Amino acid sequence: MFSMKIQLDLKKDLQNWVDGCNKISHGKNWKLGVSPEYQYIVEQLVGSDFEEAEKFMYPVLEGIYEEKKGLITNYKNIIQEKINTHLQEACLAMEDMTGFPLYRKDFILNLTTFPRGPYNKETGEFWSCVFRSPENILGNFLHELQHFQVLHYFKDTPPMSTLTSEQFELLKESLTVILNVECKKFLAREDKGYPLHQDLRKNLLVFWAKERNFKALIAYGCDCVK
User: Looking at the domain assignment, is residue 142 inside a domain?
Assistant: First the structure.
């Protein structure tokens, strides 16, 4: 049986705020997605590290939690119902798609008030913003779960181990395009990926239509990004 714990952790939420306000990944500036009512937080966090942010941010976040208590509770209830209903089937679909057992059976979903969804493969954690629609929570999970599988089973062995860090990230993020085929029933919206990756995603999808083999898809993708 697979399991998922849902939690709102103050420190983990703050870390997401700090990272999101000071990092750009895959060409995306995450702080631009913060709503106008919280722009004052962005202004305070830009240039700050976690230790500096801890000095003033905990009361700010606790105030948001209290102000948005109803919204957060509703968000959690909706995703809990979806997870209770579909988690087992979704995890089995990922095993079938990648050709490997899931690298672990227990996962953690961290609720966050920042519009960025990082992940941690070592702890099986991923993040979901409470200000976004909860309807695609399974799609978000499967997106990160595919990353976990790739990191665990493929990253450190050829041909993926021969890629540069930039090439690996490009391929890893582009591989999620096949979720739109293999896991469509769990997705509330299309897995679109980042704008920088669209050409590769199209090529991977064409290959997958001809040969439904994840190892072969990765080998093909490695040739594409080199």
Answer: no
Is residue 65 situated within a structural domain? yes
Claim to verify: residue 160 and residue 127 sit in the same structural domain: no
How far is it, in rounded angstroms, from Cα 169 to Cα 24?
Answer: 14
Q: Where are the beta strands (DSSP E) in 103-212?
A: 106-112, 119-120, 125-129
Q: Which domain holds residue 215?
A: 149-225
The answer on pLDDT for 26 being more than 90 is no
From residue 101, how far is each of 105, 173, 192 by CA, in Å? 9, 20, 25
Name the residue among 135, 136, 113 with its Cα closest to residue 127.
113
Whether 197 is in a domain gets the answer: yes
Look over the chain and give the mean of its residue pLDDT values, rounded to a whole number. Answer: 98
32/79 Cα distance (integer angstroms): 25
The amino acid that residue 25 corresponds to is S
What's the mean pLDDT in 15-36? 95
pLDDT digits (tens, 9 = 90+) for 101-144: 999 999 999 999 999 999 999 999 999 999 999 999 999 999 99
Residues 120 and 180 in one domain: no
Packing angle between helix 198-210 and helix 214-225, nearest 10 degrees? 140
43 with 11, same domain: the answer is yes
